[in-house]
Design a protein that fits this description.
- By secondary structure, the chain is α+β, with helices and mostly antiparallel strands.
- The protein is built from 26 helices and 24 strands.
- Strands 13, 14, 15, 16, 17, 18, 19, 20, 21, 22, 23 and 24 form a twelve-stranded mixed beta sheet that branches. A six-stranded mixed barrel has the order 4-5-10-7-9-8. A two-stranded antiparallel sheet has the order 2-3.
- β20 and β21 form a beta hairpin.
- α2 packs antiparallel against α11, α8 runs parallel beside α12 and α17 packs antiparallel against α26.
- It starts with a helix and ends in a 13-residue tail after the last helix.
- Its main location: membrane.
- It is a multi-pass membrane protein.
């Protein structure tokens, strides 16, 4: 390091220690973003549990864990992702175990999982849906899979360990009884079993005996124990047998990418992810520069006399620039290192809150050092960039004027406004051309265009602020002082206004895009059923139990209809109605299998001709235009599930008549809801060999009360398999939290920018305020000036931010909404934008006026 830089860093250290308040504020503007970024990275890395980190939770001390999937499996080497083709119905658990023992020549320890409803005697609460897990009590192979919190592990078939989440939900403690079906267990302890991703909030219990779960054969896992490791070729062989496998040896030494199925190769970061990360990094740098820039400007201003003495003693302009940049580098590095260091306990606290407070799972605490180093470097770079303009200004100062305590006004470079307008024009052009395309990639053009507009606005702001200063004469005294001070001290005020502008602009753009997307989704929403109706999707084996539960709980008879098509032995079968125009079905399959009595359960009453046609083995269609000579044409396509290639295609012509298949009461009389375009009889489906997949059972609106619906859902959770219960209640209305979060984040950004800039402005304006006090101004005047400073900065930044955010926000609505049936939709949330752009500035002004000191210590009043 040259002697000039060493001297610069010594002076920087002295100035930082002398101006502790200003230095702390700069450190906050740099350190807080670093703290948040590193904390988020650490929490994400810790929460993302990889199989390699989770090997003990997945297989204990075994060499591998195999899970039956029901067909030929294609999986990633670590087993975290897989596909399968074939019959997903598992064979007998004993057969699965024998198959594994034969293929692997290993001792196989089963872990039996199921689902059940558990209750605590005497609590009087609703049953709690739980995971029921049966694990051998005395097998050391699987013992490490249990993470015991309190008490002891269960030792007999009538004992159980429960998860903390179940203990809280059911109000259970050690020694209490847990009822599951016809089984009763004594609680011996609390803890979590299995993967680290399973947090304490999970509702589960573990017992060595039969669990009492309705479906013990669901997704069973077997832990393998043998001397030799399970190699990748053995994993692939087990895949062909129908098992997905996690192997300890493969996790430690994964195969070459060429040996794994192509779809599961490690792709690393995609170009889209890289672009997003780059845009985020650039955005963070811009925001830090805008927030820290005013502080460096004030610091350079207050150090002008010392710097002028350096220049008078022979220091060159380069020496002066180095001193200012050295301050930025030292502050940036120190703040970034402190922020990174504080992020470790902050991340640990966040992880602990997520685990203990929200019951989430987490892996080993993991700090991503490479990302942390990158964020620290980013903080130093941002701080140094923020000091470039003040460094250039002090290098060009009038040394004689500064030593004589005269402060000449700062003149902005004439070319910057035009450069700013040019950059802003390019940004608008990007948003208006490439950004409004629907072919993909438009979001990047919008992001780049928005950044160019922000940078362009920063270049224009000094000229704009000077223009507003000419209007100050008509304002009250406090506002007049604030406006004129901002117009005179653009090196300080322009970055502060720009910081607020950037936050409001981003919030405005996101608010318009999100609100328009939500409005388009609501406009495009087509109800699947009449409002309040319920449908249950299940398999053939559970139909009778679902109907019995509905009859017992609500005295309802659910009509059943079966979907044509499905996957059998690696083949997908699809059946479509050959018709003119688009399908009329609002939701669900194109072709259903049902009898006239089944349709009556759906509230669809067929006329005698349609009923007779179905009873005779024919079909009914929703539109007579789809018939040709009394025949409906059904296209039957068979595809290979793996390759996606067509195996066969045929056309069936079946006798059919038109029928009114609309569900009642219709949500929209002009657009009735149809369960399917065509309904064929069960006899026709059997005769033509058409497979059926899911069964849908329907209940008209008003069939279930709220309490009955809750009881019915609980009964469905206790049945084997996956019963999907859907109640038509209109479009999703869960978007409000996103708008609230956006308002809070935008508001905090505006407050931080306005209040920090106000603090810096008041520090810099102490001589002027002292002059006012000397001529008789009251302490309240200082408070009003402080409020006016915050209000002017926030209002000007907010209004400009709305103007800057409108263009990318409106541009983003095109790719988001133009492709839907309703077409391009624009919804501007005026209330949200007004709160951020006008309401928060008023709050900032009020806070500044309330908390600023009314009286000043004695300071020197500098001559102008």
């Amino acid at each position: 390091m040259s002697g000039g830089w060493r001297a610069a860093f010594r002076m920087a250290r002295r100035e930082i220690l002398r101006a502790k308040g200003r230095s702390a504020l700069v450190a906050v503007t740099v350190g807080v973003p670093v703290l948040l970024a590193v904390t988020a990275t650490t929490v994400a890395a810790t929460s993302d549990v990889t199989p390699a980190e989770d090997v003990t939770g997945l297989m204990g001390d075994g060499v591998a864990a195999a899970t039956w999937q029901g067909g030929r499996v294609w999986q990633s080497p670590d087993g975290s992702a897989f596909d399968y083709a074939g019959d997903a119905s598992p064979p007998d658990r004993a057969e699965q175990r024998r198959l594994l023992e034969t293929v692997t020549d290993a001792r196989v320890v089963p872990i039996v999982r199921g689902y059940a409803d558990a209750v605590a005697p005497g609590e009087g609460g609703d049953p709690v849906a739980v995971d029921a897990i049966q694990v051998p009590a005395d097998d050391p192979l699987v013992a490490p899979m249990t993470r015991l919190s309190t008490g002891r592990l269960p030792a007999s078939a009538d004992e159980a360990m429960i998860s903390p989440g179940l203990a809280d939900e059911a109000g259970l403690g050690i020694g209490d009884r847990l009822i599951v079906g016809d089984r009763s267990f004594t609680v011996t302890g609390t803890g979590v079993f299995g993967s680290l991703s399973t947090g304490p909030g999970a509702r589960a219990f573990v017992t060595p005996g039969e669990t009492g779960a309705t479906d013990d054969g669901y997704a069973q896992t077997f832990v393998l124990d043998r001397a030799d490791p399970v190699t990748w070729p053995e994993v692939r062989d087990l895949n062909r047998q129908g098992f997905s496998v996690v192997s300890r040896a493969v996790l430690a030494d994964p195969p070459a990418e060429s040996a794994a199925p192509g779809r599961w190769g490690d792709q690393g970061l995609s170009s889209d992810e890289t672009t997003v990360l780059l845009l985020i990094a650039v955005g963070v740098v811009i925001q830090v520069v805008l927030l820290a820039g005013p502080a460096f400007a004030v610091g350079a201003r207050r150090s002008e006399r010392d710097l002028a003495l350096v220049a008078a003693a022979g220091g060159s302009a380069a020496h002066l620039r180095r001193i200012v940049l050295a301050q930025a580098a030292v502050l940036g590095l120190g703040a970034a290192l402190v922020g990174a260091a504080l992020s470790v306990p902050a991340a640990a606290l966040v992880v602990r809150v997520l685990v203990d407070g929200f019951g989430q799972g987490a892996g080993p605490f993991q700090v991503v050092w490479a990302a942390t180093a990158g964020v620290v470097v980013l903080g130093v770079v941002a701080a140094t960039i923020a000091a470039l303009a003040p460094a250039r200004r002090v290098a060009a100062m009038d040394v004689a004027a500064v030593l004589a305590d005269r402060r000449p006004p700062v003149r902005s470079r004439g070319g910057w406004p035009w450069a700013g307008l040019a950059l802003g024009g390019v940004g608008v052009a990007l948003c208006a051309t490439f950004g409004v395309g629907t072919g993909g990639g438009g979001e990047y053009a919008i992001a780049v265009g928005a950044m160019l507009m922000v940078v362009g606005a920063v270049f224009v702001l000094p000229t704009l602020l000077r223009a507003t200063g000419r209007l100050a004469g008509i304002l009250p005294v406090s506002l007049r002082l604030a406006v004129r001070d901002n117009a005179r001290q653009t090196a300080r005020s322009a970055p502060a206004v720009a910081a607020v502008m950037a936050v409001v602009g981003a919030a405005t753009a996101f608010a318009i895009a999100t609100a328009s997307d939500v409005a388009e989704a609501r406009a495009n929403y087509v109800p699947a059923y009449p409002m309040g109706a319920m449908a249950v999707s299940t398999d053939e084996a559970s139909v009778a139990e679902v109907q019995a539960a509905a009859s017992r709980i609500a005295g309802a008879e659910l009509g059943a209809a079966r979907s044509i098509g499905g996957s059998t032995d690696g083949e997908d079968v699809e059946v479509w109605t050959a018709k003119r125009g688009d399908p009329w079905t609002a939701w669900g399959p194109d072709v259903l299998v049902a009898s006239a009595d089944d349709l009556a359960g759906w509230g669809i009453q067929l006329d005698p001709a349609a009923r007779a046609r179905l009873d005779d083995g024919g079909a009914v269609v929703a539109d007579a235009a789809w018939l040709r000579d009394g025949q409906a044409r059904l296209e039957v396509d068979t595809w290979d599930w793996v390759s996606g290639e067509s195996i066969s295609s045929r056309v069936l012509e079946v006798p059919a008549v038109p029928a009114d298949l609309g569900l009642q009461p219709a949500a929209d009389p002009e657009a009735p809801t149809y369960p399917a375009a065509t309904v064929i009889s069960p006899a026709l489906a059997e005769r033509e060999g058409l497979p059926t997949s899911t069964v849908t059972l329907y209940a008209p609106p008003g069939t279930f009360s709220d309490d009955q619906l809750a009881e019915f859902r609980s009964a469905m959770r206790a049945l084997p398999g996956d019963q999907g219960v859907m109640v038509e209640d209109g479009p999703d209305e869960t978007y409000t939290p996103y708008f609230v979060a956006l308002a809070l984040l935008g508001g905090l950004g505006v407050l931080f920018g306005a209040l920090s800039a106000t603090g810096l402005a008041l520090r810099d304006a102490r001589p002027d305020l002292a002059t006012l006090a000397a001529v008789g101004a009251s302490p309240a005047t200082r408070r009003r000036v402080a409020a006016a400073q915050a209000g002017v900065i926030a209002v000007v930044g907010g209004v400009l931010g709305v103007a800057v955010g409108l263009v990318p926000g409106l541009a983003a609505t095109v790719p988001l909404t133009a492709s839907g049936p309703v077409g391009h939709t624009v919804d501007v949330p005026y209330g949200l934008i007004a709160v951020i752009a006008l309401g928060v500035p008023l709050l900032a002004a009020a806070l500044s006026g309330l908390f600023v000191r009314g009286r000043l210590p004695l300071v020197r009043r500098l001559a102008q």
